[in-house]
Amino acid sequence: MQQFGVLLFDGFSNHCLANTVEPLRAANSLAGRKLYDWEFLSLTEGPVTSSSGLQVTPHARLQSARGGTLMVMPSYGFRAHGGWPTLTGLRSAANRYDVLAGLDTGSWLLALAGLLDGYRATIHWEELTSFTERFPEVDAQRERYVIDRNRITCSGAMAAFDLVLHLIGQDHGQALALEVAQLFMTRDSARSHSGGVGATSGYVNKALALMQENLETPLPITDIARQVGRSHKALSTRMQSELGAGPAQVYRRLRLNLARKLVAETDLTVSEIALRAGYDDPSALTRAFRAEFGITPRALRVG
Fold it and tell me: Cα–Cα distances in Å, from 172 out to 88, 92, 149, 178, 292?
């Protein structure tokens, strides 16, 4: 299990916070186990208030926290947080966390503390010019997010979602990252970033859409390949490269994800669920379900 600390400052963005932790929560839910844990941190006692007035009570103060990745999230009014308590706290935390991440304008505070010297980094693009001028020792780049060794920087709230999806794919495979993206109804686009995998190809996206639209009556992979204008081999090679799994594996996972959702959220019988997920009989579904998730549908429902 990987531990994240999310350091909040007054004026933080609700959107950025949600786009950071909700994909982690979804990954835990889809995996059926706790892959990620996180805690909200602050430098002072008491609740932290977002730019829109939402108050969050931190789990702990930064001074006592440690873990895998510290995500620094000031968002609005970030320059006002650049005093010595913040800089001292960040420099100390660099010795207790494996990775430091600046989200939105968090890059500015990390750079001000000298923690991005010699690193490639980005920031919210409205601040990129002033960031470049203020911190010449940082290799500033106009990217959605940048991963450089043990430093991560991200340009804004939407980019935070992309970043976390990339981290999930890096840690647990692109198939899980794809499932998280589908859960949030996202659309892939040619989003520029550094240090991560590229967006899925247009025809891979089309193939995934065809699979999603035909879960109850699965299409042969050769038909899917033909409909997206590629050979079976070409589609298989590209999906293996981009998603870490071939078309048949991805298709099966999508069908089984539907089955798991129906088991958990409905009162349908296993026989009915099997038909909706494209299986001829409940025993076939049960075997595939147990092989994929390590538990039978009935045991999951009872649990």
Answer: 34, 30, 19, 11, 14
Contact (CB, 8 A) for 279 and 288:
yes
CA dist 194 → 98, 140, 163, 166, 272 (Å) = 20, 12, 10, 11, 45
| End-to-end Cα spacing for the chain | 22
Provide CB contacts within 8 A for 140, sequence distance 6+: 121, 122, 123, 128, 131, 132
- Condensed to tens digits (0 to 9), the pLDDT of residues 163-206 reads 999 999 889 877 788 888 877 866 543 333 333 334 456 888 88
Q: Dump pLDDT digits (tens) for 13-46.
A: 999 999 999 999 999 988 888 999 999 999 998 9
Q: pTM value?
A: 0.77
With contact defined as beta carbons under 8 Å apart, do 192 and 143 qualify? Answer: yes
Q: Name 69's Cβ contacts closer than 8 Å, sequence gap at least 6.
A: 2, 3, 4, 5, 97, 98, 99, 100, 101, 152
Residue ranges and CATH numbers for the domains of the chain are 2-168 (3.40.50.880), 200-303 (1.10.10.60)
Which token pair is 187?
């659309």
Residues forming beta bridges with residue 196, ordered by sequence position:
none
The DSSP-derived string for 107-142 is: HHHHHHTT-STTSEE---GGGHHHHHHH-TTSEE--
Q: Pairing relation of β-strands 55-56 and 48-49?
A: antiparallel
Cα–Cα distance between 62 and 94 in angstroms, integer? Answer: 11
Amino acid at 207: A
Spatial separation of the C-alpha atoms in residues 241 and 10, rounded to whole Å:
42
Phi and psi at residue 119, in whole multiples of 5°?
A: -105, 155
Asked if 100 contacts 156 with a C-beta cutoff of 8 angstroms, the reply is no
